[in-house]
Specification:
Chain lengths: 385, 247
């Protein structure tokens, strides 16, 4: 069951529907597409108790302006593009209960490039070849294979308004120390290969020592880097073969290109190394002008990092309990009068039970001396007692 | 040369390359397809996607399920027991093609460059069955082998910004069909009304690695438009001939 949940008022710079990508069709030349920052997408779904592969909006640099068409829970992860709910700064990496009629917008990039906007139940657009991910070049996925446009209406898989239970799922919790700070100097670990033998020892040393700058020609297909040219043994061409996610190809000019979500499935340039999956987020969140340096690790070390990230995602998912109705209430004291703060339904607002959880992101109300006062409040539990 | 044993190369922490030979040849490519067929039948635990190319297969696996060594061992086992592919029947997919005119604006240049006339270009280009070595680059694009070397022509000096789907072109010693609109520098000699990629179709991609392609000349623009109408209406059935292999 699904219902209208979001209306795009302004699409922002580039907002697309993405999930974990379209696997199983690369052998027919179909690129996977999917979220650029897979960790952020999956963390958002884990926070909401969504399917791990639920579709979200990937917003780029300048986020969209969205009107909510239903009471629904939202989680925003990835880049800090300054999200605001009804004009009030909205916390990220946590579940926020929003109301029909609320407006979500973004003030501008503060840290990182790509933010993920997830809603309870996931965004429901038709699957094409097993995925909802937008791949713009072949015009598939998302809505008509295009970036979101003003006026688009997005359904959520399950919403309060249609009486489904996605809203009742326990919210996950993001440990504060696991929230990424992207910054502007990125270090990405790589596994050398598959064609490191096509480079001189000096060429490999160059890759691993010189920082590279992300050029303006960096997008969902790949990041073109600028810096010290990387030396080949004997030319940059190989017999065209498969291009793994995160692989670093080096054409004849010696300037590396990291191939990402929308890369062509095959290519004919030598591939010196591949960014490990746990560090692809760092590349996806690098802005043109930022630096990226590379550090070599073994396959085993890379897989240990992958397993650690899977454990973190599992712990986010299982992290929290929803607020217990018996928990202490929040009240205001004014002129010695104690008054409950009420939520939108007139029920007393309760304290968050778990670290990281928060309540009352908007429209708290208190009755004091017969009059009703409204508050825009956020109460977040910062530590355990 | 086909290697006696596959060579493995890491491709990050979730993929590896199994390389089976060092050249573009039908023999090595048949071995690639044998491995692909075996993988398709669910051969190796942890493998969730794979991508066959001229002489190697890119294999994606889940490190939570299998280590790189386990995947390599699984692939070696599959290769030992895999039936050799390609000895049986072969599919020849017929692509009706209108050569020259507005839809093949570079045919005169291809003819002139090779010192032949346009009719000879058409006769030579449509007189060969091309092996689909691999699919890749963009959805539905087939890397074809077998272009007559007397048709080889360099790419355009300056690529076109948009080439429509169905355009048939030549670039150096390669020939191919653009499946989706894209920029490109190939010399365009004709166009097929058949869709190599159609996401609305149950099988979105028309060709498979291992198929053969035969370009069948369309005699007139009227006939091209008629086929195009039937393709758009979903009524056109692509002609696929099944032939016994030569060897």
């Amino acid at each position: 069951m699904s219902g209208a949940a979001l209306k795009i008022i302004q699409p922002g710079m580039l907002s697309t529907i993405q999930d974990r990508g379209r696997y199983g069709y690369q052998r027919f030349g179909m690129p996977t597409a999917g979220a650029m920052d897979m960790f952020a997408l999956r963390a958002a779904n884990a926070l909401l108790g969504n399917d791990d592969n639920a579709a979200c909006i990937e917003a780029t640099v300048l986020g969209p302006r969205i009107e909510l068409l239903a009471d629904i829970r939202i989680a925003i992860t990835g880049a800090d593009l300054s999200p605001r709910l009804n004009g009030v700064p909205m916390p990220m990496w946590t579940v926020v209960r929003a109301r029909k009629g609320d407006t979500l917008n973004f003030g501008g990039p503060a840290d990182g490039v790509r933010a993920y906007i997830a809603v309870s139940g996931g965004i429901d657009v038709p699957q094409v070849m097993g995925s909802r991910a937008t791949y713009m070049k072949a015009a598939i996925g998302g809505i008509d294979g295009k970036p979101l446009r003003a006026g688009d209406i997005l359904n959520a898989g399950y919403t309060d308004s249609v009486g489904e239970d996605a809203e009742e799922r326990p919210a996950g919790i993001m440990p504060q120390d696991a929230i990424p700070q992207y910054g502007s100097e990125h270090v990405a670990r790589v596994v050398l290969g598959p064609q490191d033998a096509s480079f001189t020892a000096k060429g490999i040393d160059t890759l691993l020592s010189a920082p590279y700058t992300a050029s303006i020609n960096s997008d969902r297909m790949g990041y073109r880097l600028e810096g010290e040219p990387i030396e080949h043994v004997d030319g940059a061409d190989v017999i065209s073969d498969g291009t793994p996610l995160g692989t670093i190809q080096v054409p004849g000019d010696g300037q590396p290109i990291i191939l990402l979500a929308d890369r062509g499935t095959t290519g004919g340039y030598t591939k010196i190394a591949t960014v490990i999956s746990a560090d692809l987020s760092k590349v996806a969140q690098a802005m043109p002008g930022h630096t990226i340096s590379f550090k070599a690790v073994t396959v085993e070390e890379a897989q240990a990092a992958y397993r650690a990230q899977e454990r973190l995602l599992a712990s986010i998912r299982s992290g929290g309990e929803v607020t217990d109705a018996a928990a202490p209430r929040i009240a205001v004291v004014m002129d010695d009068t104690i008054s409950d703060i009420l939520d939108g339904d007139g029920e007393p607002l309760t304290l968050p039970a778990a670290v990281g959880e928060q309540v009352g992101t908007h429209s708290g109300a208190a009755r004091i001396g017969g009059a009703t006062y409204e508050f825009d409040i956020t109460v977040r539990r910062m530590s355990d007692s | 040369m086909l290697y006696d044993n596959p060579r493995f190369f890491p491709a990050g922490d979730m993929a590896l390359v199994a390389e089976l030979g060092d050249a573009i040849s039908p023999e090595i490519n048949r071995r690639v397809r044998s491995l692909t067929d075996a993988l398709e039948q669910g051969g190796v635990p942890g493998v969730f996607d794979f991508l066959p190319t001229y002489r190697s297969v890119l294999v994606y696996y889940d490190p939570l399920v299998a280590t790189s060594d386990e995947v390599q061992d699984g692939i070696k086992l599959l290769l030992q027991s895999a039936q050799s592919t390609g000895a049986g029947a072969r599919n020849v997919v017929h692509l009706p093609t209108l050569y020259g005119g507005d839809l093949g604006p570079d045919i005169a240049f291809v003819a002139q460059h090779n010192g032949i006339d346009e009719q000879e270009v058409i006769r030579m280009h449509s007189g060969t069955d091309y092996l689909v070595y691999m699919m890749g680059f963009s959805p539905g694009f087939a890397y074809l082998g077998g272009l007559d070397e007397r048709l080889a022509t360099p790419r355009l000096q300056s690529p076109r910004t948009e080439i429509p789907p169905g355009a048939v072109g030549i670039a150096e010693t390669q020939t191919g069909v653009y499946p989706v609109a894209s920029p490109g520098g190939w010399q365009l000699i004709g166009r097929t009304p058949v869709k190599l990629f159609d996401p609305a179709r149950e099988r979105p991609v028309l060709l498979n690695a291992g198929d053969y392609v035969r370009f069948v000349p369309i005699e007139s623009r009227e006939r091209y438009d008629d086929i195009l109408r039937r393709v758009d209406a979903g009524e056109y059935v692509v002609d696929v001939e099944t032939e016994a292999a030569e060897s």
